[in-house]
Amino acid sequence: MFDALLDEDATTLAALIRGGDVSAQEVTQAAINRMEQREPQIQAFCTATPKLALQQAAAVDAKRARGETLGALAGVPLVVKDLICTAGVKTTSGSHAYADFVPEEDDITVERLLAADAVLLGKTTAPEFGYSGVGHNPLFPSPRNPWDLSKTPGGSSAGSGAALAARLCPIALGSDGGGSVRIPAAHCGVFGLKASMGRVPLWPGCRDERYPGVSSWESLEHIGPMTRSVRDSALMMSVMAGPDMRDRHSIPCNDVDWLASLEKPLSGLRIAFSADFGYIAVDPEVRDIVTQAARRFARELGAELDEVDPGIADEGATFAALVAFESDLTGMRHMHAELGARMSPHLSAMLQRDWRAETFTDANTTRKKLCNQMWRFMQHYDLLLSPTLAVPPFPLNMQGPEIIDGRMVRSDHWLSFCFPFNFTGQPAASVPAGFTASGLPIGMQIVGRHLDDGLVLAASAAFERIQPWNHITPVSIGVAHD
């Protein structure tokens, strides 16, 4: 009975626990049992915390027994990406340099989720310091995609996406510096949201100069919810959003009622759609699935849909330069000197490159140009839709396909739809748009104007009502594909 509850969304689970229909400990034990059964196939976790989870669940039940009001996430099992700090729980960032690192404090988001009575099941695997769109790293086995165990779940929030798709938990925390919430959301058939820059504060990740590698990507990184329903992400945002003095980029957030936004009227929307941004090589099946989803969405909403390119150029080199610019090159080069071949090859190559000052300043100028292009473009549209990724899930232990639709491309080309919106800080979500003929999930990206997070959530919820996805489950976890 308790195992079946894990297929419910977080909103339902929290209500059942709050109402006394089931205890937090019963739900947590069911999650631990399911994790023991399915985790050997999926390999989502690098550090499981079953004892801590049961202690936290007991505290939630005791709080209820005393008649105290439970938080918004009362007893809901949560997993946290291993790049995000957790006090007293190992946080390795997928690197030998931090293999035994145990933070003294929680990230702000973890602090807030636990204060809302969520229960931490453990930390999920990510590539070394998040410098990859997939999940393999030098310390742990690569997480596997529950829809096809031979395929990647995407990254860098790889384990979080895999855990959600395998239904080991109803909510997960990821981070997104170039798509790393949206990428695994698309590859794993779940929902992921990167809110506007500053909506969700970050600390110590990206901000604490004491930790080379961890303190990177400051103006690109976001932390965001990954869930099986849009409502659950809205619920998490209602807990996580809001300013904090530890993050100088954080902004006031009282202009968004996260849960009420799900019912926001959507009549008269002007929607732009681009299947390739005018330059991206896109797998034909992905192109067809997302095009049909976008057209159906607009048709059923009665919205205007223009199939038009937003004028975004190929800025992969700009993204790489901004990442390097915001990395602690001095500290990480010292780290590389000590680790040598124990560091990920692509990360080693970035650190050994002879970067020029002009490369960094040119990249920053290009980012300004793209931001200006996008605010001008979005004056004409409420939303921009596109594929989230250029390809379906591909085999484990590769950075990305180098041939897409017959074109030779860089191994990171498949990510080209995602990182521009880390440049601009606009809100962007990935919703499940459909499945390939072989049963692999495909995501559609929904991008809003800067700070119009409520509309992105409303549109995502509307698409979920038009084309539901949560009833479809992976064959690999022992449940028939609907």
Automatic annotation (TrEMBL):
Occurrences of domain Amidase (ranges): 26-457
InterPro entries the record matches: Amidase, Amidase_dom, AS_sf
TM stretches of this protein: none
Signal peptide positions on this chain: none
Pfam families associated with the record: Amidase
UniProt family annotation: Belongs to the amidase family.
Official protein name in the record: Amidase
Species per Swiss-Prot/TrEMBL record: Pantoea leporis
